Amino acid sequence: MKAIVFDEHGDIDVLSYRDIAAPELRAGEVRIAVRACSLNYHDVFTRRGMPGIKVPLPGIPGCDAAGQVAELGPGVKGWSVGDRVLADPVHIDRETGKIFMIGDTLWGAYAQYVTVRASQLIALPDDVSYADASCLPVAYGTAHRMMVTRGRVGPGDTVLILGASGGVGTAALLISVMRGASVIAAAGTDDKCRRLAELGAAETVNYTDVDIARYCRERTGGLFGGGGYDVVVNFTGGDTWARSLRCVRQGGRVLTCGATAGYNPPTDLRYIWTAEMDIRGSNGWQRSDLDELLGMVRSGALVPVIDSQVPLADGVEAHRALEERRFFGKIVLTADAPV
Ligand SMILES: NC(=O)c1ccc[n+]([C@@H]2O[C@H](COP(=O)([O-])OP(=O)(O)OC[C@H]3O[C@@H](n4cnc5c(N)ncnc54)[C@H](OP(=O)(O)O)[C@@H]3O)[C@@H](O)[C@H]2O)c1
Fold first, then answer.
1. Residue ranges per domain, the chain?
2. CATH code that applies to domain 2-137+285-334
3. Which residues line ligand 1 (CB under 6 A)?
4. Distance, CA of 308 to CA of 258 (rounded, Å)
5. Helix axes 41-48, 315-323, angle to 10 degrees
6. Does CATH number 3.40.50.300 belong to domain 152-281?
């Protein structure tokens, strides 16, 4: 099959589009002919290598696959060749406690075919496109769990989202607006800010030009005067972490699901205790998040924000655009291998 492959961890030049033998199907597994695979920042981490996670080499990135069942492994029942499916990227082996994830510890979907366990398949209704479906698991599933289950964002909440222009960020914005919250969307360019306003952000801030803590203080006032936001969403980490703690109102909450710019940032305990804030982690999604999101897409209540659809053969350049932050929402790779 054709795939975007890396033989070693490193910068973008370790990626190449080439032929590689598809793995044999084992009992309980299904081969999917990938029709759409959305890109996530996780793909960059997989390519670079992550401390504590062993990625098999050669590796293939890509966690989010929508496509058609191409082949059934021994013992698989209830699915047929040609079925439209979305794959839940994660399989947890409850006996060993091990987590397996495509585009991470298993070969991913920057490829014509990807293999998952049959239990990971979700039937994809005809009225949900492969591209829309491929946006859902990692970005929208994580945003849904973070904003709804963990964050309890609701009507009247003011929600500051850093990195609002990316996959999780646009999803968090859309979900917050659907729940009646008022979103302050922060991003790195004026053009991204303009597009965030079109998606329903009440305010936008370009944090390349403006210090976010100063912006918050000027707009809302000091902490003891009732200033700050109810919810601050920070999955960027790095230098942004301590500054963003200054934007939380008394008794507010910080939601985090990632650390694009660094997972071990300096913090400032004074703001945590003074504002009596809650810092809530949120990790991934449950199958119920994906079912709910698919329902929202079917009803038209949710339209995933897609930057562009790019043929698999051009996947290295698409991955470069992701890493260089030259996109808005989700980039989707497309493929059309036979079933
Ligand atoms: N725990 C989980 O289960 C889970 C699931 C999904 C994602 N995550 C994590 O959540 C984070 C966001 O993921 P994503 O796929 O939404 O990423 P993404 O689509 O690449 O968006 C991230 C956005 O953050 C902004 N940003 C700020 N500083 C950055 C930096 N130093 N490098 C890159 N981008 C920077 C960029 O927007 P501007 O250019 O506008 O600044 C970028 O568009 C990642 O850290 C990811 O690993 C975790």
1. 2-137+285-334, 152-281
2. 3.90.180.10
3. 40-42, 138-139, 142, 163, 165-169, 187-188, 192, 235-236, 257-261, 283-284, 322, 325
4. 24
5. 100
6. no
Ligand 1 pocket test, candidate residues 168, 175, 289, 323, most atoms within 8 A of CB: 168
Alpha helices in 100-205 (DSSP H): 130-135, 142-144, 167-178, 190-198
Q: Supply the mean pLDDT for the chain.
A: 98
Sequence-distant (6+) residues with CB within 8 A of 238 are 259, 260, 261, 262, 265
C-alpha dihedral sign at 161, 166, 168, 170: positive
Q: Which two tokens stand for residue 276?
A: 């009596």
pTM equals 0.98
Centre of ligand 1 from the C-alpha of residue 332, in Å? 16
- For ligand 1, the distance from its centroid to the CA atom of residue 36, given in whole angstroms, is 20
In tens, the pLDDT along 275-296 reads 999 999 999 999 999 999 999 9
Cα separation, 281 vs 252, whole angstroms: 14
